[in-house]
Design a protein that fits this description.
Elements lengths: L12 E4 L6 H8 L4 E4 L3 H9 L2 H7 L7 E5 L7 H12 L2 E6 L3 H4 L11 E4 L5 H4 L5 H7 L3 H4 L4 H18 L7 H13 L3 E2 L2 H8 L3 H13 L3 E4 L15 E4 L2 H7 L8 H23 L4 E6 L6 E8 L2 E7 L11 H5 L6 E8 L5 E2 L5 E4 H9 L6
Parallel strand pairs: 1-4, 1-5, 2-3, 3-4, 11-12, 12-14
Antiparallel strand pairs: 6-8, 7-8, 9-10, 10-11, 13-14
Length: about 375
């Protein structure tokens, strides 16, 4: 079992993450003395659904200040009313685990504003995998713990994708036309690492544009994917403004597009970008790596930077390349951002082994240097 980077806060919190990412296992290890209530237990789920007051009775055994873990909280969102009362009146602390934000968004989560932090758990990182980490396996199969530790990763990944369709999409009635959503998934998977164009997806799938926008929202809500906003550098060039779509795990995106063989060159770049984004988000949960993150691209040239991090009015630019050989063309986007006010570091991360600094102060790092800097909390100069 791998030790996760996630730390228990002092106050109540939501911990959201896709199924199989290890939330329940982590909670049992991190909070062994807590009262654990799993809403995937059908008997408990049925009893609480029929009589929500039972929840208060179960909590009555908990001392003020002690922890209660509620797993799959999105299955009965109205329990949050009692959670609110227990936090306010008895000082009970809650770890509220969920694999979907869809129902929580419309079910009174705002009642806990300021009383429960929102945290996320992402797939495994090199720091967590340690000597078991292998970038080629990570790009091919992803690093969802359920998949990574399976005897047959390919078969498990295929089953996992079907699990999401059945458990998250169908069970929550997130979409009315499941067959249309199934057609949409592989096309959306091809958009991994690209700017979102709902009209293009609609044409390719034969689905209305408004429906496509709804499906993209479902991907966000069920934690399968996320949108990376465009960063406005305002450098007197026309800049792209559409967000990019990144799936939460490289194995997941490959399963969605039904391509689980060896990674081919055409997909390696986008998969590596997505992996780095997941790495940045994971470390940001407890290290405050950034306040905001986005990508930058000029509309009328090929100049682009994969990630621009902002913290305390300072910026850090990271370009990611899947090539094992360095060439100066890789620096085009980073050089185009040179005049950005508040820019304190420019980093090119690639799969080569040489680390050096160019004459114009761009730092060239092997991928190992990037995740080691994150692990040591030394990404910012």
């Amino acid at each position: 079992m791998y030790t996760r980077l996630t730390r228990v806060p002092e106050q109540s919190f939501f911990l959201l993450g896709m199924r199989g990412v290890g939330k329940s296992t982590w909670a049992r290890q991190a909070l062994p003395d807590a009262l654990h209530l799993d809403l995937l237990d059908e008997a408990l789920f049925t009893d609480l659904l029929a009589d929500p007051s039972l929840f208060r009775q179960l909590l009555s055994r908990t001392e003020p200040g002690h922890w209660v873990v509620v797993d799959e909280i999105q299955r009965i969102p109205r329990l949050l009313n009692e959670v609110h009362r227990q936090i306010e009146q008895r000082g009970v602390r809650f770890a509220l685990l969920g694999s979907s934000a869809r129902k929580l968004k419309t079910a009174g989560t705002n009642l806990l504003a300021g009383r429960a932090l929102r945290k996320a758990m992402h797939p495994l990182t090199p720091a967590e995998l340690d000597i078991d980490f292998n970038i080629d396996d990570a790009l091919r199969y992803g690093t969802i713990p359920l998949v990574w530790t399976a005897p047959d990763r390919r078969e498990t990944l295929q089953s996992y994708t079907q699990l999401y369709l059945r458990e998250e999409i169908r069970a929550e009635a997130a979409v009315r036309n499941l067959s249309g959503f199934v057609r949409f998934l592989p096309v959306a998977a091809l958009m991994h690492g690209q700017t979102v164009n709902a009209s293009s997806i609609a044409r390719d799938t034969g689905i209305a544009r408004t429906t496509v926008n709804g499906y993209l929202e479902v991907l966000d809500d069920t934690l399968l994917a996320a949108h990376l906003p465009a960063f406005e550098a305002k450098l007197r060039v026309k800049e792209r403004r559409r967000p990019k779509l990144y799936w939460a795990d490289s194995g997941l995106v490959r399963a969605a597009k039904r391509q689980l063989g060896p990674v081919v060159d055409e997909e390696r770049g986008a998969l590596l970008e997505g992996w780095v984004l997941s790495l940045l988000r994971t470390h940001n949960e407890d290290q405050h790596v950034y306040d905001d993150i986005g990508y930058w691209a000029a509309s009328e040239s090929a100049a682009a930077v994969d990630f621009v991090l902002t913290r305390d009015r300072e910026h850090l630019a990271i370009e990611v390349k899947a090539s094992e050989r360095y060439n100066t063309a890789m620096l085009k986007g980073l050089r185009a951002l040179a005049d950005l006010p508040g820019l304190v570091r420019r980093v090119l991360a690639y799969r080569g082994q040489r680390a050096f600094t160019t004459e114009d102060a761009i730092e060239v790092w092997p991928l190992d240097d990037l995740h080691q800097a994150l692990q040591a909390d030394q990404l910012w100069p």
